[in-house]
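Dear Dr. H.,

I hope your travels went smoothly. While you were away I took the liberty of generating a structure for the chain from your last submission, since the lab meeting agenda had it listed for discussion. I wanted you to have the full record in hand beforehand rather than looking at slides cold. The sequence, exactly as received, is reproduced here:
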Amino acid sequence: MAAHVPTMLVMIIVSSLMMAASMAVVGWGRRRDGLGRWAAALMVNAVGHLLIMLRGQVPDMVSIVLGNLLLSCVFVGMIAAIYQFQGRPPRWLLLLTPSALVTCFVIVFIDNFPARASFVGLVIGLQAVWALVAALERRHATVGRGQWLLVAGLGLEALVLGGRALLALGGSQTATSILQGSLLQTLTFMATFSVVLISSMGFVFMSRDRADENNRIMAALDPLTGVANRRSLIAALDRDVSRAVRSRESIALMMVDIDHFKRVNDRYGHPAGDQVLCSVVNVLSERVRAQDLVGRYGGEEFMVVLPDTTLLGAEQLARELCKAVEESRCRIRAVGGAAPDATTDAALGIAVTVSIGVFGGRLEPGDSWDMLIAAADRALYQAKENGRNRVEVSTSLRRPAYLAAAQANPDTHPVSRY
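The corresponding predicted structure, in token form, is as follows:
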């Protein structure tokens, strides 16, 4: 059954324009997502099919040559959009080569519709395969299911155009004009319509899924150091405590605080202090296991959650971390406004130390994550009192006095121990 070709062309033109406008609005100000390039490709698609629909009403050089050139450029724009989404620079000369070949061939065979249909269908089909391969190359780095809609639309277009080219080469091409209705023409335009809708929606979903993933990461990570933030730490600790209670496995927790961090900020400036925080995080992260979790609890204080770890093992690791931080030096750029001697010291590297409080052991039913934090915090307080740059341990889960007082009178705030 053959559909009315001009009607299908109108459907493609209208859907391309509407989808292009929608993607332009969604992608406004988001250049890295490739939505702008995809919208531009849809605009080119609309103009190209409009020129095809005007066959016989405008010169053949415009309708046939320019029209086919624009249809090939549609996939140039789509491939460039996929590359931009993936963060890859497009090689424009290589991308535009198929379009140049289409233009030359159509000019030579402008009066031979079967030859034009086979060659243009083959080239554009290969461009669809190119876009398909580009999307699949980074499929593991692309979150969400939108990419599979994109792949489905491009795959259908490549299949139909490839089949049309093969049929034309085999002499099965029955139509003598692009506007003449046939089953093959109907399948071709339906495939084009599917690319406009299915692939475009898939590309929009890809952008949305990545934005959602970025928001999820931002909500879970500390923006400065890149490790887990306080909310993520507590959620992970709560989960690990529940598992430790059920399985009767040991669990350990460290509270790590940078000694005299205020002096670093005062002497070198807050930008240098930020670099020191990141340096300490790197030292901690490089020396823990994959199943352990390092996070920023607040300010210059960090937490290390150690599932299935005894107190002895946690204490040994804490002493190694304490020594590693002391031996490391955070090399920073000269900080504007700092004193001359401070700038010189900064160029050589800033040395800091940490105090660590450790809790470890088996838990009993009723033990909770806040009790572990209180125990490790109490050990950290003792490390500060005993001279800093040291490790103290705690085996008791009793609540410290200042927490009990805060719970009894929540309107008052405990005095800082630092």
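Two observations you may find useful: The beta strands are 250-258, 293-298, 301-307, 354-362, 391-394. The radius of gyration is 32 Å.

With kind regards,
E. W.
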